[in-house]
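Following up on my earlier thread - several people asked me to post the actual chain instead of describing it. Fair enough. Here it is, all 228 residues.
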Amino acid sequence: MATLVGVAASSALVVGAVLGTYWRPPTEVVAAALAFSAGALITAVAYDLFEDAFKTGGIWLAGGGLLVGAAAFIVADAKLEAEYDEESSGWALVAAVTLDGVPENLALGVALIGSSVGQILALLGAIFASNLPEALGGAQNMKENGRSNRFAVGVWVATGVVLAASVVVGNVVFAQFGKTPLAAVRAFAGGAVLASVADEVMPDAYEAGGPYVAFGTVAGFLTTFVLS
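Reply from S.P.:
Thanks for posting it. Predicted structure:
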């Protein structure tokens, strides 16, 4: 089950890479997709990760885990930005998607432990919606810098394999945890995902599409809320 869900979530990277290699969609379309994923991820974190953590561990455990997860992402992202001054090569996007995707996919693996089908589908859909436009943009940048179609797609396929494996790891490793440690893990993952939305996804959507992308965020929030 975890392998199947991991492949489904990471397949967005392959689809996005293929689209980005052979097609250039309007910037507004990419911005709308990013905005939609931001809203979807916010709802997924609230209802599929943090709510369960709060019910099990209370506000101190859940809130502390949320803050630590956010701090961990911010520190890692700051180091990443120091390594990559620009995104023209596409490699910065690969690194950023991996950094964003590992906590998201670990969270998806954790969500498979005791969550409802609706909760799993909501988080899966949010991650899929987030991965596709980022892989699309990364593949386009690689093409613009002289990389071959095979290279651009291959890099994103490899990234997808890593993220799919994260789902399996999250499911297998954390399935052995008790309820309280698992609540802390859920909160930590939620904090990391929320930080990635605030630091990466929403700014990119606004920069590409302007204030009207807010409608996409609302649509993503509502869609995932209904699924949850």
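The chain has a mean pLDDT of 85. That should answer part of your original question.
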